[in-house]
TrEMBL record:
Residues 306-350 are annotated as: Disordered. Residues 1-21 form the signal peptide. Residues 314-328 have a biased composition (Acidic residues). The keyword Protein biosynthesis does not apply. This is Leucine rich repeat-containing protein. SUPFAM superfamilies: L domain-like. It comes from Eubacterium oxidoreducens. The chain crosses the membrane at residues 536-554.
Length: 561
């Protein structure tokens, strides 16, 4: 009997020791329960109010009362949970607590949660429904949540940190509320984002973010944008990564900061003359800049070897569309003086080619002309750039216009690349004052000299060019004669009548050195002749004979005396 009592006493003592040794603050209970005092508490591992692990079967999870913090990575990578809600006792969600829970589709975060760690829900690719009332809004909190389509940031968030919505590829709209600062990397990789609403230190218009009169950010998913009236500055990074292909900048804008268009897909942009400063734009492969001649836009295009189209009327600048297709219908034909065809003067009808070919411009002015400005310090156009102009030439006349006003025009559909030519230097010097040069022709003198064209380009042109030469109204109505001047000799090219506004149209299919004379000198087989075709060599012989005869007579008379 005594032995039995001893055994019972030892068993009870052992049970008491085990009971004392077990931590009173930890509850580890069977799987599939909630945190009550019964077996449903087995789902969670909780220590001193901190939920450190989850052992449940997934589905809808409710963080129980009594928990004050969900520890870092507590649920990270769990593929079974589909929704999460929190008891009012929870104050903190640590960094990455629910990251990469790929089947988590909805979450409700109450205002009672005062601290949310970075990347708390990052990589939750199925997350599409979020109720978020906490004032804590950390970096990368929803990064990679590719099913999230819209989001409203709670009032009191204060700022939008880096990476908050990074790579949320299906996010289309976000309401930031009233915030004091925005790190725009929060939206990196949001390729379908088209609208941001914001107030406080910022404002929004057409889904874009502004600070006063400065355009700060254009959502990367927008395919077009209407810049707010009164905008004076386009900030660095404003269009970085944008996929829109064309843009028209309003006349209120004065400054385009460095990097405003970097790495964007904007291929055609209209820049008004109000813009006086354009910073460097790395990684921007623009096809065409449109603007006024001699503007900052023109200078930027020339300095960066970008095709430039002049729009020299205020109506064109204000109203023309930056979209290539719209510009086709609206038209922006040159309209420059001298764009009408010049016709030749009347010469001997029995010899229609006596001084070369009579030039009547082959440019149809009813077809829109795209003008490329050529500055005095213009770098040669590359083969790639010339390919672009040739593509335009399928639908337009093409005109290269120098600062002197010379227009080298190619008719629609006529241009093609020249074999083995990689650079096209379209600069031309217009010389209106005669002076003796190393390359000179004996038939040219100060009395018959009208002008000289000195082309930087040499050789065959992409097509027959019609060159509009602004020689001045003093020659209006007169016939001038155009010659190639090489090796101290002239070669007949063409002739024509100067228009009332002082333009002579000449044509050629290759470039060299050319002169325009006010009298016709016909060159046949290398022999210069007068306007009626008389061989100048015979005149020289007659003159020499006459002088010789005269001297002989004087000599004889002297002897007789």
């Amino acid at each position: 009997m005594k032995q039995r009592k001893k055994i019972i006493a030892w068993v009870l003592a052992f049970a008491m020791v085990v009971a004392v040794a077990a931590p009173a603050s930890q509850a580890i209970v069977a799987k599939g329960s909630s945190v009550t005092a019964d077996e449903t508490e087995q789902e969670f591992v909780i220590t001193d109010g901190v939920l450190t692990a989850y052992n449940g079967t997934g589905g809808a999870v409710s963080i129980p009362s009594g928990v004050t913090k969900v520890a870092a990575s507590a649920f990270s990578g769990n593929p079974s949970i589909t929704s999460v809600s929190f008891a009012s006792s929870v104050k903190t969600i640590a960094a990455g607590a629910f990251s990469n829970c790929t089947n988590l589709s909805s979450v409700s975060i109450p205002s009672t949660i005062t601290s949310v760690g970075s990347s708390a829900f990052a990589g939750c690719s199925s997350l599409s429904s979020v109720s978020y009332s906490s004032s804590s809004f950390p970096a990368s909190v929803f990064s990679g949540c590719t099913s999230l389509s819209s989001f409203t940031v709670p009032s009191g968030a204060g700022s939008i940190p880096s990476g908050a919505f990074a790579n949320c590829s299906n996010l289309t709209s976000v309401n930031l509320g009233s915030v004091s600062s925005i790190d725009f990397s929060a939206f990196s990789g949001c390729t379908n984002l088209t609208s941001i609403s914001v107030s406080g230190s910022y404002s929004s218009s057409d889904g874009c973010v502004y600070s006063g009169n400065k355009l700060l950010y254009v959502p990367r998913g927008k395919t077009s944008v209407s810049i707010k009236s009164g905008t004076t500055t386009i900030a660095s990074g404003a269009f970085t990564g944008c996929t829109m292909t064309s843009l028209k900048i309003p006349s209120s804008v004065k400054t385009i900061e460095s990097g405003a268009f970097s790495s964007s897909s904007i291929g055609t942009v209209t820049i008004p003359s109000s813009v006086t400063s354009i910073g460097a734009q790395s990684g921007w492969e623009v096809n065409l800049i449109r603007g006024k001649s001699k503007s900052a836009a023109n200078k930027y295009a020339n300095n960066n070897n970008i095709p430039f189209e002049a729009i020299d009327s205020s109506s064109d600048e204000e109203d023309s569309s930056s979209d290539e297709e719209e510009s086709e219908s609206s038209g922006s034909s040159s309209g420059s003086s001298g764009s009408s065809a010049s016709t030749s003067g009347s010469l001997d009808p029995s010899s229609p080619n006596y001084y070369g070919v009579e030039v009547i411009s082959g440019i149809d002015d009813t077809i829109e002309t795209k003008t490329i400005q050529v500055a005095d310090d213009q770098e040669p156009f590359t083969r790639k750039e010339m390919k672009q102009y040739i593509r335009w030439n399928k639908n337009y006349n093409i005109s290269f216009e120098t600062e002197d006003g010379i227009m080298v025009k190619f008719a629609k559909g006529s241009m093609s690349l020249v074999d083995d030519v990689d650079e096209y230097d379209m600069r031309v010097n217009l010389i209106l004052k005669y002076k003796k040069r190393t390359v000179d022709a004996q038939e040219m003198n100060s009395k018959n000299f009208a002008f000289e064209l000195d082309y930087y380009y040499e050789g065959e042109l992409p097509a027959t060019a019609y060159v509009y030469v602004p020689i001045g109204t003093k020659y209006a109505g007169e016939t001038l004669y155009y010659y190639m001047c090489e090796d101290d000799q002239l070669e007949n090219i063409s002739y024509g009548t100067v228009s009332e506004d002082g333009y002579l149209v000449v044509s050629q299919n290759h470039c060299s050195n050319y002169v325009g004379l006010s009298e016709g000198i016909h060159v046949k087989d290398g022999t210069p002749t007068t306007a009626d075709g008389f061989d100048i060599r015979y005149l020289l012989i007659i003159a020499v004979a006459a002088v010789g005869g005269y001297l002989l007579i004087i000599r004889r008379n002297g002897k007789s005396a």
